[in-house]
Amino acid sequence: MKSKLVLVLMFVAYLVKADEGMWMPQLIDALNIKDMKKNGFKLTAKDIYDINKASMKDAVMIFGGGCTAEVISNKGLILTNHHCGFSSIAGLSTVEKDYLKNGFFAMNQNEEISCKGLTVTFIKRIEDVTTKVTENIGANFSEQQKDSTIQVNVKNLEAIAKKGNHYDAFIRPFYYGNEYYLFVTEVFKDVRLVGAPPESIGKFGGETDNWVWPRHNADFSMFRIYADKDNKPSEYNTENVPYKPQYSFPISLQGAEKGDFTMVYGFPGRTQEYLTSYAVELLVDQQDPVRVMLRKKRLEIMEEDMKKNDTLRLMYVNRYAGVANAYKKWSGEMLGLKKSDAINKKKKNEADFLKLLETDKVKSEKYSNLFKEFEKTYADYASLSKQYDYFTECLLGIDGIRMTGSFMSIFAELKKKQAGKENKLVDVLKKTVPAIPFKNFNKETDRKLFKAMMDIYMKDVDRTIMPNYLDSLFTAFKNNTSDLTNYIYSSSVLIDNTKAKPIFEDFEKNASIVEKDPLYILTAAIYSHYQKTVIPQMSYYDKQINQLQQEYMLGLKENVKDKKFYPDANGTLRVAFGKVSDYDGKDGIHYLHYTTMDGLVEKNKTGEEDFYVKPRLLDLYAKKDFGQYADKNGKLRTCFIGSNHTTGGNSGSPVLNAKGQLIGTNFDRNWEGTMSDIMYNGSFCRNITLDVRFTLWMVDKYAGAGYLLNEMKIIK
Domain ranges in the chain? Predict the structure, then answer.
């Protein structure tokens, strides 16, 4: 009995790591508040989440489609990252009014600019609906019957939650479908740009510093929510007024020191902490290397052309940032997982789990067989995964092919209409044709992308599993990708906006021209091949893996009683807590927990393009007029790091001190720490935070928009 207890404690010790976890706010009181208080938290669980009174949750929102933002004034002023507001700022920018390059700050509310299509979403309440979602599922139901029943129940519950009010609602699975939660939301659609620093400051360090510590960039932007006269969501209207929030975060100028409690409140996107060793092995040895290699090549081509002029730079800047972000993240993920010996640790974890169950013959056999199924399934899955990556990252990495793919849905509906069947052609045309001729697209840049991707595809992909039409093109052009590229890009009207415009003005009339276009024929063949031969099999194995993970997750929760399991991130509201903390990086390198403007200026002196800043910033630094934003040593701190468990989606999240006061805005992780999506390591996984004092100094001293501070509750 004693030996088994020791084994249980060892297993739990492996699973439970300091500062790890993305916790559901409504369960903080039951699961975490004691740990939080032990680590210095001064408030209560109800201060974090309360559906009856105003609480922190009422100041945290989903920003756009994949970031977090927070309310920082009683006039609906919100703060997020520059890279979160990037697409909206880019969308408002022109060569004449380049808000990305030069920055923008409204000097009064009349100057704030409406961001078409930008929304923010608040969570009103969260409810456990597991029993309701899984009711009516018979003991003998197949997996397909279970899924169908669950989908019907989910739709019904969401409809009930939305009935008779202006709220929206969605239900998400947790623990691989072992639990379900309902989120009732309020969505605001009138959001206006208030301010953003120049890109050179907001994105200081560029791709050189992305996913890297130390950092010095002022990665912030400010927006304002507008509502109707009743403080309810409304489409953009000149009669709308600034939103009056239920709660806004007070802002502390006291800063953060090593060992201080910190809390991140936001919407982390996706983690997979409970993957098995078989999944991690596939990720490290195959998936990440292939994806990184393909994205690196695409980035080189885009970067070369973006340097030619501002038109091309603005055309590709948003796409480049998206490609680069995942490229560097996956690179760091591989590094961190290897550094942590993740595969072997996962294997040991699985062996310890089986040993924990060895006295129970039924359970021991059940989970031994489960791991064998994992091994077999991933072995079958690996080749499909590689094919899929060459489809999405290589072939669809060519913008002409990816954009032409949008015509597939048009032709599907057109054929229904021609056959006299019910169709949605009008709706599909309205949705698709406004993006045609292709926006943010340069034919010569794409020509280079096409050739480079075809070179790699032809070299790395077995001819027997290629789309037949693409294989025949390689054969016809004697494997000369230059000739193939010239044929496509000299013959296709789809990628020549001048020729394409009159065709798209009456798409239905000119459909036959599009259908005979060589780029469309190639694109249709590529999509058809992967949709028939790869994607259905991928979907099958994905479901198999999810079912196995569901069983494994249930086994962990049922048998490891002393462990508090947090659910993987899935874009829902979470709390992470930890401490301001330094760490040891590479051999012989120790990283401090904060940076100052001194480091920014030192980087600028290197003359590297990523470290350029406008002279005004350097002039202000030379004067050392840091005012109330300086630390006790007279330095202006720029960023700091902590051990909070974060991921994509946490960008823009408020970082709070023990009193619930805003001390910074989360914007990144250290490179090695990106592996925390798969396996958290408290010794070096760090979230990177923009010090709010640097933000306010930029608003006040650099932008001259100090009037905004009058709205905020600033605690000195």
Answer: 1-119+189-263+577-666+682-716, 277-537
